[in-house]
Design brief:
The chain is of the alpha/beta class. It has a domain at about 1-85 and about 155-230: Rossmann fold (3-Layer(aba) Sandwich), CATH 3.40.50. About 35% of the residues lie in helices and about 25% in strands. Helix 7 links the parallel strand 7 and strand 8 (about 185-190).
């Protein structure tokens, strides 16, 4: 479904992604792990068109997308839920969700079923559909960000640190939602600081260090990898 080959990204003169190669197959959950500053968020931003690679290619469903504008990438079925949620604080929950439908909605094409699906995943959003975004708790804002990503009708959902800063009970709810989203047939590329949970959930994973992919394998293989245990799981 998605294939990055030899992707280089620069911030000015600083090379932050170095020949990155990642593949995500349809129906998978793939996890990208690494320390802060390793280039994980940059990778997702490059896929979604927010950043342009200097070298390399990004193939999605057999088409090169590395030079397409963001709106074209979204319309092709890639939705990006960034770190920090980035909801519209002055809009209601409903308006935040509705705005995401602009990439596909046609005259008379209803989004009611999409809305009900999001509300079934996150019942708290239904209860708060008329509240402004700024009035939601951190966990509710994360639910709203994920719900907004789903309202774009993605085939591939990019999630950047969805559990960051959440209470343990809410972290479990987020992972339950990710599992249900995948069961609906949506492919996911996930960045997650809760490495143990992410590797237990994913089919495959990649370890990104200093802008390079250093290790790849199944979730179980990475859980058993000595370097991953020491560097990311705190197991010596």
């Amino acid at each position: 479904m998605l294939k990055l080959k030899d992707v280089d990204v620069y911030y000015g003169t600083a090379r932050v992604l170095k020949e990155v190669a990642i593949e995500v197959c349809a129906g998978e959950i793939v996890t990208l792990i690494g320390a802060n500053g390793a280039g994980k968020s940059t990778t997702l931003k490059t896929i979604s068109g927010l950043i342009r690679p200097r070298h390399g290619s990004i193939q999605y469903l057999g088409e090169s997308i590395e030079r397409l504008p963001v709106e074209r990438i979204v319309s092709k079925g890639i939705s990006h839920v960034p770190e920090g949620r980035c909801i519209f604080p002055g809009l209601t929950v409903f308006a935040n969700l509705e705005v995401a439908t602009s990439s596909w909605r046609r005259q008379g094409d209803s989004y009611q079923a999409d809305l009900e699906y999001v509300f079934s995943l996150f019942p708290a959003l239904k209860e708060r559909r008329d509240q402004l975004g700024w009035s939601l708790s951190g966990g509710e804002q994360q639910m709203l960000a994920m719900g907004r990503g789903l309202m774009a009708r993605p085939r591939l959902l990019l999630l950047d640190e969805p559990s960051l800063g959440l209470a343990p009970k809410l972290v479990q709810s987020v992972f339950d939602a990710i599992r249900q989203i995948n069961q609906k047939g949506i492919t996911l590329l996930l960045i997650e600081q809760n490495v143990h949970s992410a590797l237990n959930l994913c089919a495959r994973g990649y370890v990104l260090e200093n802008g390079r992919i250093m290790i790849e394998g199944s979730g179980q293989e990475l859980l058993n990898n000595t370097h991953v245990k020491e560097a990311y799981l705190g197991i010596v």
